Amino acid sequence: MRRLAPAAAAAAITALLLAGCSMGGASDSGVPAVGPSGPVAPEQEKLQGEVAEDAAGGAADAPFADRSVITTGWMSITVDDPVATAEETADLAERAGGRVDNRTETPGTDSQPASASLTVRIPADRLDAFVDELRGLGTVNSVSMNASDVTQERQDLDARIDALTASTDRLRDLLAAATSITDLIAIESELTTRQAELDSLTQQRDWLVDQVDFSTITVELVTAAVAPDPVPDDFWSGLVAGWNALLGFAAWLGVAVGVLLPWLAAALVAGAIIVAIVVLAARGRRPADAGRDVAPRA
Prior knowledge:
Blueprint: H1 4-27, H2 42-57, E1 69-78, H3 82-95, E2 99-106, E3 115-123, H4 127-135, E4 139-149, H5 151-177, H6 181-213, E5 214-222, H7 235-294
Parallel strand pairs: 1-5
Antiparallel strand pairs: 1-4, 2-3, 3-5
């Protein structure tokens, strides 16, 4: 019996290492395998069945309340004081249980109007109420919302994490029962590799859960001076918009002519000087040429 114990331990380690190779190859395509390609032990077959069921269940069979959706949005609001409204927006986000990830404020000067921009993270179940509160801060210029379903990705991560967790637990049991240096080195190497992959997958899942639990919305606060003009919706508003565009073009053309006029005047003066020099030089050559033509005849 004592002779058979090392052989049994070596066989178990070999099977587990083969399972690691199989798992590493399957991880690139989705859910990792948890056993060798040959006959599967009852516990391993059960684990494979659970992983396959978790991954194959997919987002299609998940109830709507259990779906994982990442929501992002963008809002542009015209307000009287963007800097003060930015502080109010941050307070609204804090009261909603969220946070401000990024905040930029530009005070108004003689050369530029005031503006502010905030990127806030709001709990997904409070997003609609938060947007309604933002509408009360000023005049909403535009709103854009985007929802991305990541249910399948989250289920795949959960299945792979469960499989790797069970695998690392088995490796720790083998490590505790190992009796030779060779077995210890082989088990520790495989355990380190799988633990690193497990930690990486756990970080990916934590980031995905944070994106699902907290929606991201960017709020742009501007003054009426930089707010976008309303789009014409009838004949008269279109006529007014066309007339204003014509006046704007005429004003721009007048500015362009005013900028170019000094350069044109300078170019004309330079051209006149060059022409005068050429004419005077041509007149000076004519008497000299006439004198050379008369001298041989005398």
